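Marked as duplicate of an earlier ticket. Keeping the data here for the record.
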Amino acid sequence: MDQQKPVVEEVPVGTHFDYPADQPVTTYEQERRELLARYTRFAQGRGRLLKSYLIRPAGSTNQLVVELFDATQAQLIVTCATLQRGGAAGVWYAVGTLADLACFLSPPTRNILVLPAEPDSDLDGLCAIRSILPVWPGTDGFTSHPESEPPL
C-alpha cells in the first residue's frame, strides 16, 4: 500500500470555513462565524499566535479546515453556535470535528469547544470524557469553569 502523508497548508485566519462555499450561509453558520470571530479577537487581544490550516488527508481529494489553532497554547479551537447535542450543526458534530482534526496536528494539543453560553452539567460531562475544554462568552471575554487549567 502507498504510504502517503497528509498535506497541511497554512492559510490566513478567517478566510476558510468548515462549510460548503457553494451554499448560502445559514443563520446558524452566520452565528457560528460571529462566535469564531469574537473568540479570535479575544485570543489575539491576549497576544496569542493564531493560525488556520487546510488539510488534505493522505489519499483523499477532500480538504479539512482548521478554522482556528492557537499556536501559543497548542489549542485546537472549534465553535458551535448551539447547546443542542444532535443534528448537523450540534455539539456532537463539533466534538467529532475536534477528534478528526486533532489527528493531523502535532500533539499535545488541547481541544477547545467555543459555545454560545455555559453548558449544562450533562454537556460538561460529555466534554470532560472527550478531554475537551468548553468555553463561552463571559463578562471579560470568554470563560470556562474555574477548575480548568491552564487559564484561557
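See parent ticket for discussion. The chain has a mean pLDDT of 89.
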